[in-house]
Amino acid sequence: MLFEFGFYSSLLLIPFIHGIVYAVLLFWKGQTHQIKSNFWLGAFLILCSAYVAPWMLGFAGWYDNQPYRDVLFYVPFQQLFWMGPLLYFYTQSLLNPAFKMSPRLWWHFVPGLLYNIGMLYLWIYDYFIYKSYYFYADQADKDFDSWYQYTGLISMVIYLVLSLRYYQSYKNFIYEQTSFAERILFQWIKNYLIAFLVMLLLPVVFEVLGLFYPELKTYTGSWWFFLFFSLITFYIGLSGYANSVQTSIPFKLSAFDPIALELENLEPLLIESETQNNSAKELNESLIWKSKIESLLTREKLYENPELTLAELAKKLQTNSSVISKAINQGFEMNFNDLINHYRVEAVKEMLRQNAHKKSTLLGIAYDCGFNSKATFNRAFKKNTGVSPKDFMETA
User: What are the residues facing 178 on neighbouring strands?
Assistant: First the structure.
């Protein structure tokens, strides 16, 4: 197979191969450990590697020799309409262990499928009907048509926004449902979403730079864009393989709130009247539940359980999670995670006043009070007291 090794082709070849290798490793790890999210990220990495293939292979001599030129012309290496959905479903499968593809979700891949069908038609017409270049008479690769590049970029921006929205909803959910939210926030999710954002900003940045440095808009100058794109792909592959974990907390993003839809159908005055009555009733119920929650947490010290969830607290109080969540939000004006960490901080402060730090380490005291990491403890302590644990010890 033709491949002319040179400065431009060789440097792109390195991250290209790494992207494929990490995709294979993710497939293997996903199959071995039953991690579904790995398959989505692996597929995304393959498309990212294919994205830079025309430039890498072009510098390797493919555009100048047959049949390699036709391969680059008729094979749609840049699957711009599929990259966004793959990353979006990776986000969902990472944060929702119950996530699975439904017939409705497969529609997200229809634009990409239509583009591939169109490319197949071009090949069939040129090769078997016209028997020469008709659609490629200008010798320009269709993957780089402006309409496709711009609509592909818009598509990826939309899916990035959807992924961010899904992650934000997940964050709100676990802060309401668990007392160990920071441990399952997955810093990796933030990192790869930022990396994807940088990917999307690259063409904009190079377009602006091209106004001042016209050589960046040449075939050789554009090589720098694909080099940076390849490096980001390499980072996503390496970090994604090292962080191939998923939450064990079931999570599903609701499309709408049925209660809100019902209220929209009522007369304005009726809504106002019922809202006032309901608000007074809810406030009274929240105060009652607040008292029960305070009593239970103080008496049984449930906050000492580092894995405590809202569902467990609700079970202890013989009610459901939604009732307790609403009571905590209204009565304590904070979410469940912050409430439990508040009790843990108060317990640590009390032990410090009793000079427990003379018999145990500060971190040991924090663990005894329910914290599960040093970072979470320091952050929660500073948030609740305004000072660090060490500063508090000096003044206690």
Answer: 309
Instruction: Determine the residue type at 206.
Output: F
> How many Å is the maximal CA-CA distance in the chain?
90
Contact in structure between 103 and 175 (CB atoms under 8 Å): no
Single pTM value for the model = 0.82
- DSSP 3-state percent helix, strand, coil across the chain (nearest 5): 75, 0, 25
Please give the DSSP secondary-structure letter assigned to residue 309: B
The kind and range of the H/E element at 128 are none
Structure tokens at 345: 């901080």
User: Could you report the per-residue pLDDT of 314-359, keeping only the tens digit for each?
Assistant: 999 998 888 888 889 888 989 999 999 999 999 999 998 888 888 8
DSSP structural state of residue 67: T
For residue 60 the two structure tokens come to 């390797």
* Cα separation of the two ends of the chain: 74
Between CA 126 and CA 128 the distance in angstroms is 6
- 355, two tokens: 């000079």
- For 195, phi and psi rounded to 5 degrees? -60, -40
CA–CA separation, 236 and 26 (whole Å): 12
* C-beta atoms surrounding 159 within 10 Å: 21
